[in-house]
Amino acid sequence: MQVHSSYFDKPQELLERIVAQMEKVIIGKREVIEQLLVALLCGGHVLLEDVPGVGKTMLVRTLARTIDCSFKRIQCTPDLLPSDLTGSSIYNQQTAKFEFRPGPLMANLILADELNRTSPRTQAALLEAMEEKRVTVDGETHALPEPFFLMATQNPFEFEGTFPLPEAQLDRFFMKLRLGYPAPKDEMELLNRVVERHPLAQLRPLLLPEEFMALQKDAQRVHVDDTIKGYIVQLSAATREHADVTLGVSPRASIALMRAAQARAYLSGRGYVIPDDVKQLAVPVLAHRLLLAPDAELAYRSREEVMGGIAAAAPIPARRYAPAQ
């Protein structure tokens, strides 16, 4: 595959092509695809929570086909060990030395399927990889390839034999997304497309990992006015004071929301962030980081519902947001 350097004259056209290609397989879920691209432009990890069969794994495989990068799938089970993820040191009798044998985490795009089925010890092995983008095996640190994205899936309705993700790990997921069931017309279109050949087999890479990393750097240059930063801080503070929330979001979440708003503005072809960028991403970026109060859980209120209410109630700043000329 050749580097398409000409795409960077109009990066939004390239990003639109990525979304359009992924929609050939994931039908009727443009908003989720765009949110996934926002997370990737920020170098963030994504938790896909939904019922079986709606396309979580297919979404990740489609992305791997679109970006020409290495892809590994990990099926999480209760007997999975940390070394099964990170790799291990093997003694080589010929050289009389221990050699590092990399595990599946040594790839650009990782799919951890049913993450909540593996033990807390193995879940904890992912924390260093997610935050530091490296793994430590037998006291030696090994850098992960760049770019590095972890996408994990879990079923929210199956609890037997599962280990709920701890708050510290949830906080390291940049975003939590749900696909949901397709609309009837989209499901009909899906049936038509897979009659003879699955559309995934026809996809071709649109860009290299190095190109995607260049897009990430471009997205970080999007201007964020102090008024927008104040709006983000206001949202974060509101989660810490809300009656339905025991534990509000951390400063890490505020940074994530700002980065996400930059990426959304970049996808829209703007060089500056507006309040709508923040408001539209508040739920997928912040909701999964909340710890609800017992009364809210007894009332069957979801984190998304509570965060949506906080975002709706927060006053939106009114002024110019573009950088001064």
TrEMBL record:
SUPFAM superfamilies: P-loop containing nucleoside triphosphate hydrolases (SSF52540). It comes from the Bacteria. The keyword ATP-binding applies. Residues 238-298 form the ChlI/MoxR AAA lid domain. Residues 45-175 form the ATPase AAA-3 domain. InterPro entries: ATPase_AAA-3, CbbQ/NirQ/NorQ/GpvN, ChlI/MoxR_AAA_lid, P-loop_NTPase. Keywords: ATP-binding, Nucleotide-binding. One of its GO terms (molecular function) is ATP hydrolysis activity. Transmembrane segments: none annotated. CDD domains: AAA. Belongs to the MoxR family. This is MoxR family ATPase. It comes from Paenibacillus piri.
